[in-house]
Amino acid sequence: MICDNITSKDGILYFAGQNTVELAKKYGTPLYLMDEDKIREKCRSYKKAFEKHFGPEAQPLYASKANCFKRIYEIMAEENMGIDVVSSGEIYVALKAGFDLSHAYFHSNNKTDEDIAYAIENGIGYFVADNVEEVKAVEAEAAKRGIKQKLILRLTPGIDPHTYEAIATGKVDSKFGTPIETGQADEIVEFTLKQEHVILDGFHCHVGSQVFGEDIFERAAEVMLEFTAHMRDKVGYTARVLDLGGGYGVRYTENDPYLDIETKVGQVAEVIKATCQRLNLEVPEIHMEPGRSIVADAGMTLYTAGTVKIIPGYKNYVSIDGGMPDNPRFALYGSDYTCLPANKMDEKRDFECSIVGRCCESGDIIQEHVMMPSSIGRYDTVAVCTTGAYNYSMASNYNKLPRPAVVMLKGGNENYLVVKRETFEDLIRHDL
After folding, report:
1. pLDDT value at position 167?
2. Dmax of the chain from CA atoms?
3. Is 43 a catalytic residue?
4. Going by fewer Cβ within 10 Å, which terminus of the chain is more open, N or C?
5. Rounded CA gap, 216 and 158, in Å?
């Protein structure tokens, strides 16, 4: 199996030690499952690796956009993780979960004045400022309140991570951040240092998502540290914090490589320490922002199969009771997934098909070229693995389909509801 929390027994798929067919019967489908033990294990792996290689002040920050609901923030607080947030909505959910926002970092390339005011009023720890306009807006809101607001600057190091074009964010012409190569990074640092009501605490970059390249983070760190030394020499400012963003890849299929977090963090640390020595810099407080790599393989989605359509000599389809509203990633990126016949794991998989959704949309596809048993049919349970990231958080009500429930699994036998299934009434709750 692609992950150690997926097994089969007596022809039934088990996830986090629990019978997926029984879970589908208990809670209905479509259904998001989340493995709480796996989430905590990943958090602890990052915390341990950071302390070992960067010291106790280093911080892994959970990237909320990967999957955001109250229970996630409660777990992050319990695991002493920081978080990054990208909207006032994520801030609101974190607040409702009781998360201490002094450990939160507010991203986004276009924060409104209302976003900035809301974040400051609720005690946001840091803004990750994307551009000069944002620095000006934060300065103005902080000045109104007579406070000094901490921020770090998001810079663009010019690194191509060789990932999906839509999720590559480190290149010079990205919509995110201020580029180093054009000289604009120098300008925004100098401008920020002149502001009376903001405290510039460091620099941030993010090169992209689903990164497997061996030296992507190492190259980004080297560019950022060289820029840090450059600003020290030019204006006498040395960044206290260096945030390298997130983006480590996860296994969606057997063809994807396995990344060991401790090893990868150690490799980045070696380059950072060597570069700092070369540049005569103290090693800054290092942050990274794992999201997908914490929750992706902690998730699975269960569906019930419906229509099976065979077009001899052309193509076969297995339709499910969900689709692109609960998982738009194939439609957006052509993302790969592993799909399994949850109640027929022992049967030979000799039927090639496309797993497709129920929407009136030709692009409503979960995965092409899937091998299923030839007996696959109505009422069978279909599982899609590694759906803990960017599934629930990107879900919609397209075709007026209610969003699925989210169930947390724990300890091999405990399961509990963390997000209720939407009802038809929810679909018109804001209609007048």
Report:
1. 38
2. 72
3. no
4. C
5. 11
Q: What is the DSSP letter of 190?
A: H
Beta bridge partners, 356, equal: 319, 365
The pLDDT tens digits for 223-264 are 999 999 999 999 999 999 999 999 889 999 999 988 899 999
The residues, ordered by sequence, that sit 6+ positions from 289 with a Cβ below 8 Å of its Cβ are 60, 61, 62, 63, 84, 105, 206, 243, 245, 246
According to DSSP, the β-strands at 241-243 and 414-419 are unpaired
Distance of CA 78 to the CA centre of its chain: 19
What's the pLDDT score for residue 174? 60
Is residue 85 within 8 Å of residue 105, measured between CB atoms? yes
d(CA 66, CA 59): 18
User: What is the model's pLDDT at position 240?
Assistant: 97
Q: How far apart are CA 36 and CA 18, in angstroms?
A: 13
Residue pair 275/221 in contact by the 8 Å Cβ criterion: yes
Is residue 54 within 8 Å of residue 269, measured between CB atoms? yes
Q: Is 368 helix (H, G, I), strand (E, B) or coil?
A: strand
What span, in angstroms and rounded, lies between the C-alpha atoms of 153 and 282? 19
Residue corresponding to tokens 């911080």: 59
Helix (H) or strand (E) holding 85: strand 82-85
Partnered with residue 406 across adjacent β-strands are: 32, 419
Specify which residues 44 forms β-bridges with. none
Q: HSE of 303 in the Cβ direction (CA atoms, 13 Å)?
A: 30
43, 68, 276, 360: the active-site residue = 360
List Cβ neighbours of 380 (8 Å cut-off, separation of 6 or more): 304, 305, 341, 342, 343, 344
Q: Which residues contact 274 (CB under 8 A, 6 or more apart)?
A: none
Beta strands in 166-214 (DSSP E): 178-179, 198-204
pLDDT in tens, 380-416: 999 999 999 999 999 999 999 999 999 999 999 999 9
**In the sheet where 6-9 sits, what is the strand order?**
6-9, 12-15, 18-19
Query: Residue 201: which of 151, 244, 129, 155 has the closest Cα?
Result: 151
Q: What element of type H or E holds 51?
A: helix 36-54
Using only the alpha carbons of the chain, give its radius of gyration.
23
Local mean pLDDT, 10-residue blocks, the chain (432 residues): 93 98 98 98 97 96 97 98 98 98 96 98 98 97 98 88 44 74 95 98 90 81 96 98 93 92 94 98 97 97 98 97 97 96 98 98 97 98 98 98 98 98 98 97
Give the span between the Cα atoms of 367 and 93, in whole angstroms.
Answer: 32
Strands 299-311 and 381-385: antiparallel
